[in-house]
Amino acid sequence: MATAGASPHVLKIHDLHAEVAGKPILKGVSMEIKSGELAAIMGPNGSGKSTLAYCLMGHPKYKVTSGTVTLDGHDLLSLPVDKRARLGLFLGFQYPQEISGLSMAKFLWTAYAQRHPEPDIDTAAFDESLATHLGYLDIDKSFLKRSLNEGFSGGEKKRSEILQMATFQPTIAILDEPDSGLDIDAVKAVGETVAKVQKESPQMGILVITHYQRILKYLNPDKVHVMVDGVVALSGGRELALELEAKGYDWVKPPVPPPA
Question: What is the pLDDT of residue 3?
């Protein structure tokens, strides 16, 4: 729930259609993510989950053909990637890029400064927050001296993405399969840290994209959406994720469009 007295943030997606290399992938996605909410998108491979994340962030490979997306009333689709980020949108990648020569510390500080321009920037708050979240994720300070994601293990890359989210304090955070390729202990560490970050930042809305419910037991999502063939076929609460874990996705069918 949003903090009392504060203006809630809202990401609104309405009837979003998108294609990749001329192939339709999203076929009318609609949903909302609000302050203090944690929503999950589940679904089989090829259902459009990651495509939705990249469309929201503005990846040039993904072409939005119709529909609208707004963040706090701003037309997100009309903005370049950097302005979407400055507005408060964050994407944690499934496969983060490596950048040689750019230290984690420099990257985190530079991005943080973009969200908190002078004279509002608080170096002490940044240092304190960074130390806290390093502890949550069981990351040694020496990690900050390494080049961004270069030579990182799969688990380290995921921890890096969550550390970025915790440091940047976005309005809406989208995490694309943060549990992908992780062992049980790493999933627990990542899931618990996401939950702690959201508790510390009640104005943040989080959208987690995942195949499995294992990370959701640490997050307790408010809403679970199931994507099938480019649309949201089913929505429910935490219990829906458990049902999907037990029964798979074959029983979930896309909605039948009304007759023309």
Answer: 45
